[in-house]
Amino acid sequence: MTTYEGPLPKPDRDSQAYWEAARRHELVLQQCADCEKFRFYPRVVCPHCMSDRFEWRKSSGRGVVYSFTVVHRAPTPFFRDKVPYVVALIDLQEGVRMMSNIVGCDPAEVKIGDHVEVIFEDINEEITLPKFKLRQVLNSSMGGEV
Ligand code: ZN
Prior knowledge:
Elements: H1 16-23, E1 28-32, E2 38-39, E3 54-58, E4 62-71, E5 85-92, E6 97-102, E7 115-122, E8 128-134
Antiparallel strand pairs: 1-2, 1-3, 4-5, 4-7, 5-6, 7-8
The structure holds zinc ion.
The site of zinc ion (ZN) has 8 residues, from loops.
């Protein structure tokens, strides 16, 4: 693996379990043990009921595009050969919204409401980044999801 020059997250006490799961290619979310709502990003206290009791749960990894932008102008030299790329807000089935990239397609293909599924990009021994790809959804009469 070559040295990665791009920006990387710095796992902290609250997010360490999240990044460890990403290394195993699992997307995990905190679920409040009191009100049972999911939350993202990782934090100590539930934003809905202020409880500090929670469990890590594996996410379906599936969601829909809430909004997105296509970046054409590289914010730093690292991104010069990456543009254009998609930065999206994704509403996961568990009810949380997260920001990530949509990869593996022409950025011009992406639309609000598109179904997406998580994939994992191994960056180095410590960091794996969850990203998303477009997902074909059969219509509901074929047993797919709406
Ligand atoms: Zn709660």
